[in-house]
Write a structure and sequence with these properties.
The chain is of the alpha/beta class. The chain contains 10 helices and 6 strands, in the order βαααααβαβαβαβαβα.
Length: 227
């Protein structure tokens, strides 16, 4: 097993606690515009570009003709709601996450984040967690042509950190789309964590290397892989 040189983390549900801020904000923003979507449907889109999610449900209901303004209006409402939600509920790191980041840093393993959040919200969350200067790369859906399940964000994080071989990369996320994007990026060590809103049974159906209870279990796994 090649040494791990870069570990890429999703943010919400992987590094910070998920209290349904995203799902609730999506549902309310869509319903405010009379757009139908269920909680189960939104859950399957967790981790993707937020604008792309809205575009999917708007075009499903109204077709592709002249929907641009409706998408933008709904997306603007979503941004207002999600920012309000995080402002009121705070940003709570997953137990052990800060220690894991420090542990990787001490071993000179590069660390990065990818997220379906837009840039301003990502920066707000990282700042609230005290991680604004922690990572070697922070990539969001604004930075690439296609959000998850496309591999663009992972590949961009690799490019920024100078890691060209996916064999040296580990990717962690709590959603099916995290695992799908890792598979499309040819990541050999793709890990699902169970601190989000998806069950082990759901994540098992996606391509993955391991499932962990949380990022706190990462040192043990890396030790086993490199022993």
């Amino acid at each position: 097993m090649p040494d791990i040189r870069l570990v890429i983390f999703d943010i919400a549900g992987t590094l910070i606690e998920d209290h349904d801020e995203v799902t609730d904000s999506f549902l309310l923003a869509l319903r405010n515009q009379g757009i139908a979507a269920s909680e189960a449907e939104i859950k399957e889109w967790k981790g993707s570009s937020k604008r792309e999610v809205i575009g999917h449900f708007v075009s499903r209901q109204f077709g592709s003709c002249r929907i641009g303004p409706l998408i933008e209006q709904t997306y603007s409402n979503f941004r207002f709601l999600i920012e309000k939600s995080y402002a009121s509920g705070g940003v709570v790191p997953i137990a052990g996450a800060a220690e894991i980041l420090a542990w990787l840093r001490e071993r000179e393993i590069k660390i990065a984040t990818t997220t379906g959040f837009y840039r301003e919200l990502r920066d707000t969350i990282l700042r609230a967690a005290g991680w604004e200067h922690t990572f070697d790369a922070n990539v969001c859906s604004d930075d690439v042509s296609h959000g998850r399940p496309a591999p663009d964000m992972i590949r961009h994080a690799m490019q920024i950190t100078g890691i060209t071989d996916s064999a040296f990369v580990m990717n962690l996320g709590d959603t099916p789309l995290d695992l799908q994007s890792a598979a499309k990026a040819n990541i050999k060590t793709s890990i699902g964590v169970l601190t989000g809103k998806h069950t082990a049974e759901r994540l098992q159906r996606e391509p993955h290397s391991y499932l962990l209870q949380s990022v706190a279990d990462l040192p043990t796994l890396i030790g086993q892989l490199q022993s």
